[in-house]
Amino acid sequence: MHRLLKRQIRKYLSAEDESKFEYFLKAVNEAYTDYDTDLKQHENILETCSVELFTLNKELQKTLQNKTEEVKETSSRMETIVNSISEIIFQTTFSGEWLYLNVAWTKITGFTIDKSIGVNAFEFIHPDDIKSCLLKLRTLIEGESNFCFIEGRILTNSGSYKWCEATIRLAKERDGIKSGFTGTVKDITERKRLEAEKNKTEEKFKLIFEKSSVAYLITKGSQFFECNKACLDLFGVSRKEDFIGRSVADFSPQYQPNGALSLETARTWIEECKTKGYAKFDWIHLKENGSEFPVEIALNTVPLMEGTVSFVVLNDLSERKRVEQELIIAKEKAENATLVKAQFLSTMSHEIRTPMNAVIGVTHLLSEDNPREDQIQNINILKLSADNLMALINDILDFSKIEAGRVTVEAVEFNFRNLIQNIASVFIPRSREKGLDFIVDIDPKIPVNLIGDPTRISQILNNLCGNAIKFTDKGNVQIVVSYQERYADKLKVKFEIKDTGIGIPEHKQDEIFQSFSQADSNTTRLYGGTGLGLTISKKLIEIMGGSIDVKSDLEFGTTFTFDLHLIVSHHPQIKLDFTVRNYRNLNKVKGLHILLVEDNPMNVLMIKQFLKKWEITYEIATNGRVALEKVQSDNFDMVLMDLQMPVMDGYEATESIRSLPGEKYQKIPILAITASLFNEIHTKVLNAGMNDFVSKPINPEDLYLKIEKYVH
Amino acid sequence: MKVEKVIISSSAEYSKLKDIRLQPDLLFIFGLGELISDKEFRIAIRNSFSDCLIFGCSSSGEISGLEVFKNSISITAVQFSSTKLRIESVDLNDYKTNIECGEKLCEKFPAKDLKHLMVLSDGIHINGCHLIEGIQNKLSKKVAVTGGLAGDGTRFSETFVFTKEGEAKNNCVSALGFYGDAISVGYGTNGGWENFGIERHVTKSKDNVLYELDQQPALLLYKQFLGERAKELPLSGMSFPLSCRIGDSKNAVVRTVHGINEADQSLLFGGNIPEGSYVKLMKANVDSLILGAELSAKACTDMIPTGESELAILISCVGRKLVLKQLVEEEVEVVADVIGNQAIIGGFYSYGEISPFTKDSKYYLHNQTMTITTFSEK
Question: Which of A93, A157, A183, A677 could form a disulfide with A168 if both were Cys (CB 3.0 to 4.6 A apart)?
């Protein structure tokens, strides 16, 4: 039972009463207990609520503190930002007194903020600018616009004024009541200066445009839009109004030199200029008086305020075209001169060769005719001089051909080893005469059969070896041929011609490849030679795609090095055999009957002497026609055929002989006798049906070997 | 309209049905589940009133006249002069959702001349909010709905509702439609509970299960405020409902705890507590609850003036009964004082109430209120 009720019962009720009111007391007790429970419950709620509210309050305080700090931080950050802005930020009252100014105010005007706040802003404005300023502000106040721009001069503490631009708005309180003005002020002194400068620059450019001696034109599409004086002059127009507004078509002929319509061509160029941004081309224009003149036109697309226009630079080509024409004529003249020179040299060489053949031939005959001792010496001098003269003529001939660009490089199969050996066989005896060793070293990796120009390679090696022997008095001369690299069938071969001779001073090493140059002018006197050999060799190597280099030392001698690219042949059969067989079997040629076709009596005389010696019988034909008749009337074993003859030349004669009916005419060996270098004419010779050739001047040994070769 | 009432305290008193002398069109029957589902009782009813409509359910306390009973049957017999009635019932198990159930129930009522609808539902296997949503989907906005959820003492184990055929069954939802211009209906609902403490944000909930308040487990917080009485949960929860306000709405519905789940620290409520809504803890004192009942009655008199209503059906929450205890009849008397003593009063203590806040407004599921429906017929 509830404590309070128990106490009350004991105090106010007897035991009888208690039993009498048992149910009532029970209800009262229940109510007491429930009230207690409810009270406890409410106390708990109160307690829990107050704890909860206390906690929340603490959290709120903390948040408030954080927010306060945040605001402080933000406002200090804002202050920093506002003060780091280069523009003045301001606020004024309606009557114009400064309410707020940031640091930029001091930076721009020099006045301190403290002293300026409260002062009327108009005190700082140039008197001449106040009126326009007030007018602008009125539009704001009357609500015609939300903000206005004002340009004016602001006083600085030095007493001078600065150009400034202000952006101003009405300041409104939170309830929308207008409270004054707010805005920013920018220092535009620099901009004003730049504007002035820009105006000046514009003026300058206008002047440059107008006064330039180059014709400038600005077009819009094909319409003339603007031009300078030089342009008017160029077109022969006196007044600008007569030019501006007209179009390209008005000042162009109907057709351009390439036959295209001017109008269409112009359009194409304008289109190209639009896409590429520029175009440059030659054009024929018409002057006002209708005369044509050539110009070079440079079009440039320029985006201007009025839309895209083309800036045109016209370059009068009349003078240049004239000079060009002159240059072309001069060049043609020069080329002709060179050609004439080459032809002259070529002709001269041929003309000189013919008598030279006689001189050499006769010298040979003399030397083989058992001369006396005193005669031998003279004959030797004669022989040497003739050989030198011949070499000089050959060099000049070669040189002129190279100069005239008439050298062609052969690509024929040949036996590389034989070629080198052949050259060696010529130089070995000569070296021995001077007491020198002649050493040949061929890299075994180099294939035997190659494709290239053996004649030219021989020529180069002959020249270099000849030089080496000439300038070496003791020691040796070497030909070293080494394998460099091979790519598929392409082979790179290095040639080295080394000697232990007098050497070339370093400063002369570049010069030696120049025409008519030798290391020393004394050299010519001492060693002879034309000075053309190295130039020719160098050019030939270059034509064949190689290069030559020299290393020399006055003590140890000289080494010439050059590379050549040759092709490896897969056909072992060699068409040209340069093997020199160093034996004579006179019996083999004895009793032959030969037809000698030659118009030059000197050559006839010489060859006759050799043939007689070899006990060969012969008939002479002075031209091809005679030869054709003779070959049918007699039974010849062989024909020696000169190529250049009157009436009928050697080619025609051979072709006629070969076309005669009868097998013997097909088989009879016909050897050409020619002063030309064989590689230049060999195709023609072979095509004509000749078997081989003997070159002039006639070398008796050569002639003998060739005859022997074709004896059946 | 003629009304008579009778109270039956046990199975021995079924014969008291004979005390009803008028020929009733309708019987409101509220009572102990065990009794109203008794076969004998059904036979007794049918013997006395062979073709009378029966509308009623099991309860957590019965109201008859100015008295409150327990473990009894409160019968209110009504004879109408011209008003047409229609009762329809559905079984919750026949529908996938409670919404669909509400929709199907309403579809059974012809819309023409329908004046008012009363709804009684199983009090345990139902989501009252969903049921009302279903009803609202189908019913004309002009028709007001009042009613409640059947009770089962403070046991929460089994509730009954009378079917259309007059058989008390579990999982049943029944509706009573009033047709015609003769009938006038008044209604009012009010709790009288007071908020305390701070408003809390519902951060996690699903339908009528509340998981988190301000990211804190809901049960933990709830127990803190219950103090010693936390031991008596869920029963003690009856006395500490929550008020639930959605968004900026000022009207808050009251939600009573019907169960707890220690495993996930959640609270199970008699109605939905949407996520994002705001709730406050509530407490009551006797005076404020009685005042609440008085306000409900005053709302009714706005529609049927004092002294004119002939019948009043009171549906009051079982939670109120637990708080009022010995003073429970005070809240019935105060209603009678307001509407007038001429009205015959019947009713029951429920697991939930249905009513609009004010005249012609949307109806909601309530907890912890005194919900009154008054009738008069011309």
Answer: A183
